[in-house]
Design brief:
With 281 residues, the protein is α+β, with helices and mostly antiparallel strands. It has one domain (7-278). The protein is 26% helix and 27% strand. It has 8 helices and 17 strands. It has a 6-stranded mixed sheet with strand order 5-4-8-9-17-16. Strand 1 (19-27) and strand 2 (32-39) form a beta hairpin. This is SAM-dependent methyltransferase, putative. One of its GO terms (molecular function) is S-adenosylmethionine-dependent methyltransferase activity. Keywords: Methyltransferase, Transferase.
Length: 281
């Protein structure tokens, strides 16, 4: 059995009033056997963030579950670990270390994550040019590197057609203004038979996905009161353009690019929805 790093114990002891120990488990995000904790601080922050939202309590409770249960080594939450696990399963690998070794040895295999090491956080991937990451940083410099990170917009990616075997999106598509363009761009840069693996928050009390905002000629038009989600890049948060409902898989499907929803049980009672789109071969 792989031992839990001593620094896990030390970090937990430093935060023992804010964290509740849950379990020891393998984390596919950072490729370690780690301590999993429930953050009371994060729970309170999410409660404050969602207090004014129109959403029901079941949806808010689901968010609190999927965004918590943190790996003490890399701080990845339950949603991130489930997304990473799904990517590994699709690629036929047991660990993220296996994925890194394949990327480093197979010149025909490539992966694009639309965030900078949000889902996989191991040094071996950072050193591999076929594991490509990006952030949305500046609207007039797409395709350039800014502060060491590639700048891309999901609505107008600068990669050639048929570039990647897998594209990973983690809670992004609720924030894009043009969902059609974004999905078409993902399909374009995927190789035939390639996978789009993603998460979006789904409010199962909604029969149909609800548009909250849209881009008009004069800028953003609000159809409902603005809602902002937390953002790892901007302290101001990021605007929600749509609330996905029970029809999320249908909303994320296109002709020749169907999307399926997998409701996966976490180890701590949470249910995580992961969506898988496959480009026609």
């Amino acid at each position: 059995m792989i031992p839990v790093p001593v620094k896990n114990i030390a970090r937990f002891l430093m935060h023992r009033r804010a964290w509740r120990f849950v379990s020891f488990d393998y984390c596919p995000v950072c490729d370690t056997r780690s301590m999993i904790v429930y953050s009371r601080e994060l729970e309170r922050w999410l409660a404050d963030l969602t207090a004014s939202w129109e959403a029901g309590e079941d949806f808010k409770r689901m968010l609190a579950m999927r965004e918590n249960f943190l790996c003490v080594t890399c701080m990845a939450n339950s949603r991130m670990r489930m997304l990473a696990r799904t990517v590994l399963d699709l690629c036929g690998h047991a660990t993220s270390g296996d994925l890194a070794r394949r990327l480093c040895s197979d010149p025909l295999f490539s992966v694009y994550e639309t965030a900078a090491y949000n889902i996989f956080r191991i040094d071996a991937l950072k050193a591999c040019p076929r594991y490509v990451v990006s952030e949305y940083l500046a609207p007039d410099r797409f395709g350039e590197t800014i502060g060491g990170v590639r700048n891309e917009s999901l609505e107008c990616l600068t990669f050639p057609d048929d570039s990647f075997d897998v594209v990973i999106n983690s809670d992004v598509l609720e924030h894009v203004a043009d969902l059609d363009k974004s999905l078409e761009e993902v399909r374009r840069v995927l190789k035939p038979g390639g996978y789009h693996v993603l998460t979006v928050p789904v409010d199962y009390s909604l029969e149909h996905t609800v548009e909250r905002a849209r881009m008009g000629q004069g800028g953003i038009e609000y159809l409902k009161s603005p809602v902002m989600h937390g953002d790892t890049v901007r302290n101001t948060g990021v605007l929600v353009f749509r609330d996905f409902g029970r029809d999320a898989a249908s909303c994320l499907s296109r002709e020749g690019f169907p999307c399926l929803e997998m409701q996966l049980p976490g180890r701590h009672g949470e249910i995580i929805s992961v969506f898988i789109g496959k480009k026609a071969a």
